[in-house]
Design a protein that fits this description.
Helices cover 44% and strands 19% of the residues. It has 28 helices and 30 strands. Strands 1, 3, 13, 14, 15, 16, 19, 24, 26, 27 and 28 form an eleven-stranded mixed β-sheet that branches. Strands 4, 5, 6, 9, 12, 17 and 18 form a seven-stranded antiparallel β-sheet that branches. A hairpin with a 6-residue loop joins strand 7 (164-166) and strand 8. Helix 22 (773-804) packs across helix 26 (903-924) and helix 25 packs antiparallel against helix 26 (903-924). The longest helix is centred in the N-terminal third of the chain and has 39 residues, at 13-51. The chain is elongated. The two termini are 28 Å apart.
């Protein structure tokens, strides 16, 4: 038997080599491709596992804190913490942190926004007239913050080379030229020679609104706006009220600004374990469990009362943004000698405002400079703080999100105590910008100097003062993977960027950061941190009790013990903790955040502004693992089926081409079993040879493609080749045993039942395909399988991306998995086209007599080539279109959700695959057509 097999292989070297090449390509491709799929799957799973866990695994929020958008979309809003001020009790927190499986339970209790006053310095030295002895500059500032620009009040600065001198109480304030002439000349000359100035500017509040405070908010300082009608122009403290600075080298003005600072309470130990807060201390020390409010009274009291202090940390980094651009004008003051008396006159305000000015330039100041100056203060008053509500969203007609603007803030919001004193230096953004949050003020029981506190609960506590124990740098926090980063709003604002070119232009291609508006869309995160023990001192000092008295906590972030990723055991541990919390407190909002990932969403703001911000999609990692397992399994099965059917088709064609030989063997007495062993033996030997060559090829290609363990994987080619060759040859070998002795004399091509006239080459090609329907279907089947596989793979790929895309982790995974998808598609199409060409070549050989007759009757090489091409195109279109229909049907069988939103894409791609398959068949037919054209009619007849 071995001798016969070897002889057959030697005699039919072309067919053996072709079959060996098919086995080589199929086995090598299958091994490499499945290795690629496995590597891609491993990389995907590794990416998911490496990025599945962020700072915390479970997020607990107050009742009704989840918005409709979050509930419908399984999302967590990026600004969820900024609009939550209380709702969870300390007893609930104590019970939750004591539950089994809870490793860390870190609470956050947002107290409210304090307004920290400071100044920014504007240098106007370069705009001075060097020859003038006295001059006034007008500074017209415009604040730019986020998407808005806001006009602020004019500021004025007065400069003189005559040193200011304070006399007795009756004499008041004078310049040196009002003193003895000799002394005045000496001082003035000294200032002139040394380039010195005395610089004066007022910081008095605009009283043009009379006693009706709030009508002209914000109560911004207007320089030289002091109402002196009830004062002498020679007031002895005029120098102090004018903020005069003597002997200065530069002309500068300090413009007052205020910054909202969100004060929140934390558990220092839990916070350090959760995010490593202790490692961020830039100066001073970290908060500790021993830090609690303390009291100072009697002679040690700084404020003349029983003072209560609470410890706190303050962020070194300004979390609000803004710039101050100012136009500078040099005013025409007339006779400089008359300026001192005019500025000390009750009509000084009107005089200065009426002066005409000449623009001399512009200057810019970053508002962050003022915040850094505020860091020099160690104590802050809590006489009033403000809380804000969440942003309200609505669905747009296109399914997007739009933020709902809120009504403008009421002036009474800035009244700080029962004497109806207004808060000074309210940031302009609160009155001129669009508001998206409801703002509520919380005034304290501070009634010093008021005589009585009418309407105030006598049981309330005096408001405490914040005493800083240290400062921390949010930039020193340990990093978390950006692919799975859950909101860390305790330390950083949400990332908001322009979603369209118009918005990006407004933002100057910078992210949208929080401004100083309490009701703004992007709220600044907590900037000042205190201890849990300090909560009562703060909330209990408010004039009107509120939710924070009973339930002060805003959120609890939980890390579960024993969680390493999104494996089954870790998920069970997290779900157990979340389930226990839900069972204990059904009204609390409990979100499992392990395996979550930022999911960019576009939000429409006022004036058609569109921004993109990172909401958090829950359960992304688990969905990715499920989807990648499904897709990898489908890829593996499809590649295996494509390779096996291709080889089966090639083996069947080989048996078909030897039908005469097998029939002769049966006439000589060979049994069906002997014929079976003959066919399988040939295929096994061919598989061994192809497998050995494929192992070497797979090793080389694996190294070139960067496959890990290319050597070990290349060894799999040999057994895979044997398995594929044997499996593919079973059916053809069994069919060979069914051939009887008459097959030796029966023509391979069945004659037509009745004669039909053929008037074109295309018609003859169609007739030839119909005459051998079995072979035609065989050739089309391989191509149909390739196109169907392509259609299914494309649909699964799109469905996979649709399942996991939309989040940063999903997008990263999609990018990694793309190569294996394309390799699978290419392999299925190439093998399908090769099988179709193989069938056409066998068919041509069996119809050698027909071709000889056509050549003898005058057909040219061109016409024979056209005949073959038409047969190939017909076969390719039949297989391709059938495969497209079958692929679409298979996709629908998997579920309509797979094609959701992609029906046209998948259908169009299936048709393109049909055209691609046709092109492959036509290109592959070039070689047999060229060889066929060189055979003479006599040779064709002899071949039969």
């Amino acid at each position: 038997m071995i001798t016969v097999i070897l002889d057959q292989l030697r005699r039919r070297r072309g067919r053996a080599l072709a079959l060996a090449a098919g086995i080589l390509v199929a086995a090598t491709s299958f091994t490499l491709l499945t290795a690629t799929v496995s590597t891609s799957q491993a990389a995907t799973v590794g990416t998911v596992r490496d990025n599945a866990r962020s700072a915390y695994d479970v997020l607990v929020r107050p009742p009704d804190s989840q918005t409709d958008v979050e509930r419908q979309s399984a999302l967590v809003a990026p600004n969820f913490l900024s609009g939550t001020f209380g709702g969870i009790t300390t007893d609930q927190y104590d019970r939750i942190r004591g539950m089994a499986g809870v490793d860390v339970a870190a609470p956050v209790a947002n107290i409210g926004y304090l307004m920290v006053a400071s100044t920014v310095t504007v240098d106007v030295s370069r705009f001075l007239d060097g020859d003038a002895s006295r001059q006034i500059l007008r500074i017209t500032p415009t604040l730019t913050s986020g998407l808005g620009s806001y006009r602020t009040s004019d500021e004025y600065v007065y400069l003189t080379r005559s040193p200011l001198t304070s006399g007795s109480e009756s004499d008041g304030l004078f310049e040196s030229d009002t003193l003895e002439a000799a002394d005045a000349d000496e001082d003035t000359e000294r200032y002139r020679i040394n380039g010195k100035y005395d610089v004066c500017f007022y910081f008095n509040w605009d009283k043009t609104g009379g006693k009706q405070f709030g009508l002209n908010l914000p109560l911004k300082p207007n320089i030289i706006a002091e109402d002196l009608r009830d004062r002498s122009p020679f007031d002895p403290d005029l120098s102090a009220r004018m903020n005069c600075q003597s002997g200065r080298d530069k002309a500068t003005i300090d413009i007052p600004v205020s910054y909202p600072v969100l004060l929140s309470a934390i558990d220092p130990v839990a916070e350090d374990r959760l995010v490593g807060l202790g490692g961020t201390i830039a100066s001073g020390r970290m908060l500790s469990e021993q830090d609690e409010p303390w009291e100072v009274s009697g002679a040690e009291s700084v404020h003349g009362q029983r003072d209560i202090y609470i410890p706190a940390l303050l962020s070194d980094n300004p979390l609000t943004t803004g710039t101050l651009d100012a136009t500078v004008e040099r005013l025409d003051v007339g006779d400089p000698a008359e300026l001192p008396s005019k500025l000390g006159n009750p009509a000084a305000d009107g005089f200065v405002r009426s002066l005409r000015g000449t623009p001399v330039g512009t200057t810019r100041v970053d508002l962050s400079a003022g915040y850094r100056r505020a860091l020099e203060v160690d104590s802050f008053d809590t006489g009033v703080y403000w809380t804000v509500g969440p942003v309200t969203y609505r669905r747009t007609p296109g399914g997007g999100l739009a933020a709902q603007p809120q009504p403008p803030q009421e002036p009474g919001l800035w009244i700080t105590n029962s004497n109806k004193q207004p808060f000074r230096n309210v940031p302009e953004e609160n009155h001129q910008g669009v508001q998206y949050r409801e703002v509520t003020s919380h005034a304290s029981t501070d009634c010093i100097g008021l005589g009585s506190c009418e309407g105030v609960d006598s049981g309330r506590l005096p408001n405490p003062f914040v005493r800083l124990v240290g400062r921390y740098d949010t930039g020193a926090l340990p990093g978390f993977s950006p692919l799975s980063e859950t909101p860390l709003e305790t330390y950083q604002p949400p990332q908001v960027t322009g979603a369209d070119s118009a918005t990006r232009a407004k933002l100057h291609d910078e992210p949208l950061l929080p401004d100083r508006s309490l009701g703004g869309y992007v709220s600044p995160p907590p900037t000042m941190l205190t201890t849990m023990d300090s909560i009562t001192a703060l909330t209990g000092s408010r004039r009107v009790p509120g939710l924070q008295d009973e339930a002060p906590l805003s959120a609890i972030r939980i890390r579960v013990a024993g969680v390493t990723g999104v494996d089954t055991a870790s998920r069970a541990r997290v779900n157990a903790v979340a389930g226990e919390i839900r069972a204990a407190y059904p009204l609390l909002q409990v979100d499992v955040t392990v395996g979550s990932s930022p999911a960019p969403r576009t939000v429409v703001l006022a004036d058609s502004v569109q921004v993109t911000e990172r909401w958090v999609a829950k359960g992304v990692a688990l969905r990715i693992l499920r989807a990648v397992d499904t897709k990898s399994a489908v890829l593996f099965v499809l590649v295996l089926v494509v390779c096996a059917l291709f080889l089966g088709q090639a083996a069947l064609a080989s048996v078909r081409s030897r039908r005469t030989e097998i029939g002769t063997l049966r006439c000589l007495g060979w049994s069906g079993g002997e014929v079976l062993r003959l066919v399988l033996g040939e295929l096994v030997l061919i598989g061994l040879a192809a497998g050995a060559a494929g192992a070497v090829l797979a090793y080389v290609l694996g190294g070139a493609l960067g496959q890990p363990d290319a050597g070990a994987k290349s060894l799999l080619v040999l057994p895979v080749a044997l398995l594929l060759a044997t499996a593919a040859g079973l059916v053809p070998a069994w069919l060979a045993t069914r051939m009887g002795p008459m097959e030796a004399v029966r023509p391979p091509v069945t004659p037509a039942r009745r004669a039909r006239p053929v008037r074109s080459v295309a018609g003859l090609a169609a007739l030839n395909l119909l005459r051998v329907r079995g072979r035609t279907l065989l050739g089309a089947a391989g191509l149909a399988l390739g196109v169907a596989a392509f259609t299914v793979l494309l649909a699964l790929t799109l469905a996979f991306r649709g399942e996991v895309a939309g989040s940063l982790l999903g997008s990263a995974v999609v990018a990694q998995a793309r190569g294996a998808d394309y390799l699978s598609v290419a392999l299925s199409l190439v093998l399908g086209a090769a099988g179709a060409v193989d069938v056409l070549v066998i068919s041509q050989r069996e119809r050698a007599a027909d071709l000889a007759v056509l050549r003898a009757t005058g057909w040219t090489n061109r016409e024979l080539a056209k005949l073959t091409l038409h047969e190939g195109i017909g076969l390719a279109l039949l297989g391709g279109l059938s495969g497209a229909v079958a692929g679409l049907a298979g996709v629908l069988a998997l579920g309509r959700g797979v094609l959701h939103g992609h029906l046209l894409t998948v259908t169009g791609a299936a048709l393109l695959a049909t055209l691609a398959a046709t092109a492959l068949v036509v290109a592959a037919l070039a070689v047999p057509i060229r060889g066929l054209s060189r055979i003479s009619a006599a040779d064709l007849a002899a071949a039969d």
